[in-house]
């Protein structure tokens, strides 16, 4: 029988396929994505990373053992001290300053997604947290690996984006998170798995909505 992560992925298959087919993702893959759309994604993803670091801190606090706690604590540190620095440098290539990133207002989709993630972590149990977190890491890795199997885009910034999310290091991180989810999922009653499936589906829908948000350069109604 497939593990819990694979069962959750199968339940969200149509949503994930829609991500692969989204014009934003395809535009990164072939290098045709307009810069304004990518700038929107960069700005909003920075906002997302701040809340993502909070999620990792909650994951460390709620971890069932020391090894898992250490891994999540390390991930939180790397996000705050390495990934966000890389993101600022990457954004600078597109003319976005650190002050602009720091002052970015979360879009409706970004606000909804991050609030959902943090609520799942704070109100649910550790399995709920994993089900909410997994579509982000795994989805980016799956998209990165898929795009890496095609001809590299001429735009170097997009080629580096693909290389980052298809890297062996990031793939190993996703495999660790999937293994952790599978271990936590062993012996869960059907009612608990059904709850996790709904959480996983919601996060998957938010991942798809995030691409659409950047594609449309979503703003709040005025």
UniProtKB/TrEMBL annotation:
Pathway assignment reads: Cofactor biosynthesis; thiamine diphosphate biosynthesis
A Pfam family cross-referenced in the UniProt record is TENA_THI-4
User: InterPro entries of this UniProt entry?
Assistant: Haem_Oase-like_multi-hlx, TenA_E, Thiaminase-2/PQQC, Thiaminase_II, Thiamine_Salvage_TenA
Q: Which UniProt keywords apply?
A: Hydrolase, Thiamine biosynthesis
Provide the Thiaminase-2/PQQC domain boundaries. 10-216
EC number(s) on file: 3.5.99.2
Catalyzed reaction equations = 4-amino-5-aminomethyl-2-methylpyrimidine + H2O = 4-amino-5-hydroxymethyl-2-methylpyrimidine + NH4(+); thiamine + H2O = 5-(2-hydroxyethyl)-4-methylthiazole + 4-amino-5-hydroxymethyl-2-methylpyrimidine + H(+)
User: What Gene3D superfamilies does UniProt report for this protein, alphabetically?
Assistant: Heme oxygenase-like (1.20.910.10)
* Primary role: Catalyzes an amino-pyrimidine hydrolysis reaction at the C5' of the pyrimidine moiety of thiamine compounds, a reaction that is part of a thiamine salvage pathway. Thus, catalyzes the conversion of 4-amino-5-aminomethyl-2-methylpyrimidine to 4-amino-5-hydroxymethyl-2-methylpyrimidine (HMP).
UniProt lists the family membership as follows: Belongs to the TenA family.
Its name, as the record gives it, is Aminopyrimidine aminohydrolase
Q: Which organism is it from?
A: Amycolatopsis cynarae
Q: Which gene encodes it?
A: tenA
């Amino acid at each position: 029988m497939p593990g819990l992560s694979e069962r959750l992925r199968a339940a969200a298959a149509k949503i994930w396929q829609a991500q692969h087919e989204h014009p934003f993702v395809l535009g990164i893959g072939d290098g045709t994505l307009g810069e304004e759309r990518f700038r929107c994604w960069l700005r909003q993803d920075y906002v997302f990373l701040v809340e993502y670091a909070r999620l990792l801190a909650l994951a460390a606090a709620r971890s069932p053992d020391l090894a898992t706690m250490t891994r999540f604590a390390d991930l939180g540190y790397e996000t705050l001290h390495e990934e966000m620095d890389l993101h600022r440098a990457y954004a600078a290539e597109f003319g976005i300053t650190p002050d602009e990133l720091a002052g970015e207002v979360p879009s409706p989709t970004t606000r909804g997604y991050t609030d959902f993630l943090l609520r799942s972590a704070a109100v649910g149990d550790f399995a709920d947290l994993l089900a909410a977190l997994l579509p982000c890491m795994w989805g980016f890795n799956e998209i990165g690996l898929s795009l890496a199997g095609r001809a590299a885009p001429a735009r170097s910034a997009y080629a580096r984006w693909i290389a980052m999310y298809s890297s062996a290091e990031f793939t190993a991180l996703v495999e660790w998170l999937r293994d952790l989810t599978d271990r936590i999922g062993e012996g869960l009653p059907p009612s608990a798995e059904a709850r996790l499936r709904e959480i996983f589906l919601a996060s998957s829908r938010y991942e798809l909505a995030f691409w659409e948000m950047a594609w449309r350069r979503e703003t709040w109604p005025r």
